[in-house]
Amino acid sequence: MSTTPSTDLETFPNPNPERDYTIKIDTPEFTCLCPKTGQPDFATMTLEYVPNRSCIELKSFKLYIWSYRDKGAFHEAVTNAILDDLVKACQPRFMRLSADFNVRGGVYTTVIVEHKDPKWTPPTPVQLA
């Protein structure tokens, strides 16, 4: 078992690349540091993506998220940086990362960032009665 954070994101082959489906990963224990005060910021990260040829391996994702624990970063910057790294690692058809930061000084912050492969067309939603 690894006991150190890592910035390496591993992937594995998508077992059903012919199908559009959504993978959702909730991470309620994200932490980084406020770049102004050095105090910890806590967030719940929700990753949703439609994989293409590869999927993010969960253990490497956990260690990657852990690598931010001692980094100073503004909420907007860290959310965008994480999305960029995840997109680079697995090149999904679509990916959305929502970061819900805990209250700080009476203010809640939510940052939502998205990536969509320009060659991908989302399926039409099915409406059931």
Q: Would you kindly provide a written description of the structure presented here, covering whatever features stand out?
A:
With 129 residues, the chain is of the alpha+beta class. It has one domain (19-116): GTP cyclohydrolase I, C-terminal domain/NADPH-dependent 7-cyano-7-deazaguanine reductase, N-terminal domain (GTP Cyclohydrolase I, domain 2, 2-Layer Sandwich). 19% of the residues lie in helices and 38% in strands. The protein contains two helices and six strands, in the order ββββααββ. It has helices at 58-66, 75-90; strands spanning 11-13, 23-33, 40-50, 54-56, 94-104, 107-116. A four-stranded antiparallel beta sheet has the order 2-3-5-6, with helices on one face. A two-stranded antiparallel ribbon has the order 1-4. The mean pLDDT is 95.
Summarize the structure.
This protein is an alpha+beta fold and about 130 residues long. It has helices at about 60-65, 75-90, and strands spanning about 10-15, 25-35, 40-50, 55, 95-105, 105-115.
